[in-house]
Amino acid sequence: MPDDISRRRFLRAAGAGVAGTTLGAFGFGESETALAAAIRPFKLARAVETRNTCPYCAVACGIIMYSPPGAGDSAKRTLTHIEGDPDHPTNRGTLCPKGAALLDFVRAPTRLTRPRYRGPGEAQFREISWDQALDKVARLFKDDRDKNFIAKNKSGVTVNRWTTTGFLAASATTNETAFLTYKVVRGAGGVVFDNQARV
Amino acid sequence: MTNLWTDIRNTDLVIIMGGNAAEAHPCGFKWVTEAKAGRGAKLIVVDPRFTRSASVADVYAPIRPGTDIAFLLGVINHCIANDQVHKDYVKTFTNAGYIVKEDYGYQDGLFSGYDETKRDYDRSSWAYELDAEGYASVDETLQHPRCVWNLLKQHVSVYTPEMVERICGTPKDKFLKVAQMIAETSSPTKTMTSMYALGWTQHSKGSQNIRAMAMLQLILGNIGVRGGGMNALRGHSNIQGLTDLGLMSNLLPGYMTLPMEAEPDFASYIAKRGFKPLRPNQTSYWQNYKKFFVSFQKAMWGPAATADNDFAYDYLPKLDVPTYDILRAFELMFEGKMNGYVCQGFNPLLSFPNRQKVTAALSKLKFLVVMDPLDTETARFWENHGDHNDVDPTKIQTEVLQLPSTCFAEDEGSLTNSGRWLQWHWAGADPPGEARADTWIMAQIYQRLKALYEKEGGAVPDPLVKLHWPYRDPGNPRPEELAREVNGYVVDSVKDPNDPAKLLLEAGKQVPNFAVLRDDGSTASGCWIYAGSFTEAGNMMARRDNANPDSSDLFAKWAFSWPANRRILYNRASCDIDGKPWDPSRKLIEWNGQSWAGYDVPDIAPTAKPGVVMPFIMNQEGVSRLWVLGLMRDGPFPTHYEPFEAPIDNLVAPKVHGNPAARVFKGDLEQFGDAKDYPYVATSYRLTEHFHFWTKHVWVNAVLQPEFFVEISEALAREKGIAPGSWVRVWSKRGAVKAKAVVTKRIRPLVCDGKTVHVVGVPLHWGFTGAARKGYGPNSLTPFVGDANVETPEFKAFLVDIEPIPAPTV
Predict the structure, then answer these.
(1) Is B270 helix (H, G, I), strand (E, B) or coil?
(2) Which residue is closest to A167 within chain B, CA to CA?
(3) What is the model's pTM?
(4) Phi/psi of residue B233, each to 5°?
(5) Which of B97, B405, B548, B711 has the smallest number of CB atoms closer than 10 Å to its CB?
(6) Does A134 map to a domain?
């Protein structure tokens, strides 16, 4: 592979045109042009490509996500295809059975779409608004923190800890999410704090 | 990893033990395949099951779950006894010659200073002898009876091939074949890489499992070289990032630690973190701790952290116990001492041991908040699903809030892979329905909490309301803003001491690396080891140049690798005492007379002289440790300890049960079963087609592996009258599961000390939400005890019984 052409561009170019094919060289160019015109254009040639990383294991395979052009202007962007990134040094375009099925994760029927609340002793969730949910969480946090925060221990040492509410952070969130989460939990005096790394 | 995925291609020998890379990290495993095809490398797999990794191995050796230390110390014993160690590496780059204090000792499984009632050690005897100047005393001839090398020889001598066979069940000839192949990599021009994962970490002595292999790699000279290393196969896509950023009870970002109550002020905290060199001229890079700590405090509290208030030291909570880890958290919850819990992208109902205890604990909470892209079992722990979640909602008073979050495709930011690469990704889709990014959710909660404190007052608001929150939209911080904070920036300009007209550091600029961080409040950095990831040159994590000069396989221009874009850690150790590569064909860096240079960023000061400054720059000694002083709770050497539930007694320490330094809560001690009632050894594992409990929500993966099963040998199936594909009940002292039985040749009974030991394999991936059939997790069965050092639960070795049952009515 020449250094100045990436694998993706090569594969893309290979799908895009019929110029210089063997049949053309043998003088059957006209029939080939007619055939080519009848074939639907390569679906992904006009798609918007976005680089991402498979969210599952820590090989962190490079993936390319495809969405229809112009999406996001008036409607939500959706994906039509996900495949391995051939430029990625580790996975070189390959994906395992988990990564290869990522589109089904994005589209899973059990994706959560609305905040929900379940009251004491109740048998069902009910949908609530974000405002209701966030206000409720803030209220629950404040009431528990105000009641149970330990400012000083028995020896008078300032300890500023809150042990009655705990937080489990997610090992598939970004570093940026993790840092913001750290700020809020520690700023609140949280010490009951872990993520999958310990488990 | 000390090395990286693509570097595995450069090895001569891969040992997969405590992991199963072909099945759990399939696309990374291609580098093992490349090593085999490209340079004739060999693959050894040591595992209780004949996994898919084993199916492409040159040698497979079976092993009883929970006996890896005996095996590894047996290999160390073999190497030392046959004089197959990398002598020069051991002498110059390890603490082999360091002399240990006279009152240190080891006898019958216990080290000096053990207190049985506390299940803890007084570790003061686990120390070096110091000379008049306060340096460690060293015997370079390795003759001193109390030098680490001789203590090591003595310690491993009991692990003969015969003993390994008795403990591990590994046939002696298999063990010796493996030991011989490993011993060959003691040559300076041959190397080995260790690929391991949860098969080593999820034990009550998990940290020591890994320590044992690190010791082996050090005596073979395989650390810091291409194709070598300790290659930890991390689990999730950003578990490395969450580890690095310290989202754990007792950590600060960049592997710093939260204060304890016994450190009431900043002076006492930092006095314990001086890290003065223990040998002359050594780097001991943690001497810069204060700079990293103060810079972190500035990132957290900005202008509210000044020299006058010790940089807001008191705003950090102080611990009264070593850690409020997840086992302690659920124990407190079970005792009714916790009121609220937040599960962000985590499913403890299926991921934490002793499910019955977890369910009871959650049921005592006042509130549970779940933030997830998927509908998890934990969010529905209160909901009855028949046998699969046998609870009565009317008896559970917990308020539950389920908040919909984005998934990877709808998110922007960086993830850190197993090889320490921070890779930026972009969003290509918008979230479904009203799902929102976790950053938005956390910021919204924070803004409302802050508003309540400002309006009502309450308990000690300052640490919370004075958090540094410099985001353009306080209710929605952007990933790039956060990434810049994590890298670090200059708070106050710093003049050049040699030319006051010039600035060394200009206020507002990103810092280029952690070497410029200061302890006077003029710099801020959310995570010092990530400094360099987002500089004035831009987002280094977004770099996508996959150039590979001379096939060095380091890809130094792709993304950003911590620390400082170094790709292989301890890379100075790839050269001899004079700075010449041990193996010129796999040159990494070398000394050119003035400085270190080569394919990788030197993991040492560029002008640090060979022969003077040693490679392990984070250690006070400058060298690596075969004996670790008091740094590990359960011993300065690894020792064979049986799992808490074991089929036989400990053959090297008959009076010792489990790990003598592991913490066990009283109620859990009472819930250990013994071999009389639970005759079979069980272990948990994962399948290629699934990722924990997420992919059962994914149609394709649910089709590939639709239902829960347990795996048993043909011999056990015959003994119990279990037909392949028929239903069985498996139970432990904690709980029971029902599953179909897969009867396999992949598991064979082992003979341990004359006793036949059967292994039952219990894969995890099923629950009661999602597209797959309803099932159970191994956590219904496992004991509530964790590693003595970090409390990782013992999921990989426990006892069960099994019987055939009629198929459940649908």
Answers:
(1) helix
(2) B342
(3) 0.95
(4) -95, 95
(5) B548
(6) no
When CB atoms are compared, the residue of B237, B352, B438 closest to A55 is: B237
Which residues in chain B are closer than 8 Å to A197, comparing Cβ atoms?
239, 242-243, 247-248
Q: For residue A144, give how far its alpha carbon lies from the nearest alpha carbon of chain B (Å).
A: 7
Query: Are residues A145 and A190 located together in one domain of the fold?
Result: yes
Tell me what pLDDT residue A2 has.
41
Looking up residue A57, the CATH number of its domain turns out to be 2.20.25.90
Mutate to test the interface with B, among A10, A167, A168, A185 (most CBs of B within 10 A): A168
Residues B202-221 have pLDDT tens digits of: 999 999 999 999 999 999 99
| CB contact (8 A) between residue B316 and residue A160 | yes
* Domain boundaries, position A85: 41-108
Residue A127 lies in a domain: no
Q: List per-residue pLDDT tens for chain A, 199 residues long.
A: 444 556 656 555 555 454 455 655 566 667 666 776 677 777 778 899 999 999 999 999 999 999 998 866 678 999 999 999 999 999 999 999 999 999 999 999 999 999 999 999 999 999 999 999 999 999 999 999 999 999 999 999 999 999 999 999 999 999 999 999 999 999 999 999 999 999 9
Q: What are phi and psi of B94, to 5 degrees?
A: -125, 170
Inter-chain residue contact B27 with A153, CB threshold 8 Å: no
Say if residues B309 and B294 touch (Cβ distance below 8 Å).
no
Q: Is the alpha carbon torsion for B341, B347, B351, B355 positive or negative?
A: positive
Quickly count: other Cβ atoms within 10 Å of residue A88's Cβ.
27
Give the closest of A100, A111, A163 to B373, CB-based. A111
Average pLDDT over residues B772-795: 98
State the DSSP string of chain A: --TTS-HHHHHHHHHH--TT-HHIIIIIHHHHHHHHHHSPPPGGGGSEEEEEE-SSBTT--EEEEEE-TTTTSSS----SEEEE-TT-TTTTT---TTGGGHHHHHT-TTB--S-EEE-TT-SS-EE--HHHHHHHHHHHHHHHHHHH-EEE-TTS-EEEEB-SEEEEE-TTS-HHHHHHHHHHHHHTTB-SEEEGGG-
Interchain CB distance below 8 Å, A144 and B340: yes
Pick from B24, B238, B399: CB nearest A171 = B238
pLDDT of residue B303 exceeding 90: yes
Domains of chain B are 1-96+129-235+563-625 (3.40.228.10), 326-465 (3.40.50.740), 666-804 (2.40.40.20)
Q: Which residue has the tokens 């911590």?
A: B562
Of A12-21, B476-485, B648-657, B750-759, which gets the smallest average pLDDT? A12-21
Question: How many C-beta atoms surround the C-beta of residue B744 within 10 A?
Answer: 16
B338–A51 CB contact, under 8 Å: no
Cα–Cα nearest to B121, from B657, B633, B631: B633
Residues of B in contact with A61 (CB under 8 A): 27
- Check B449 against A196: CB less than 8 A apart: no
3-class DSSP state of B561: strand
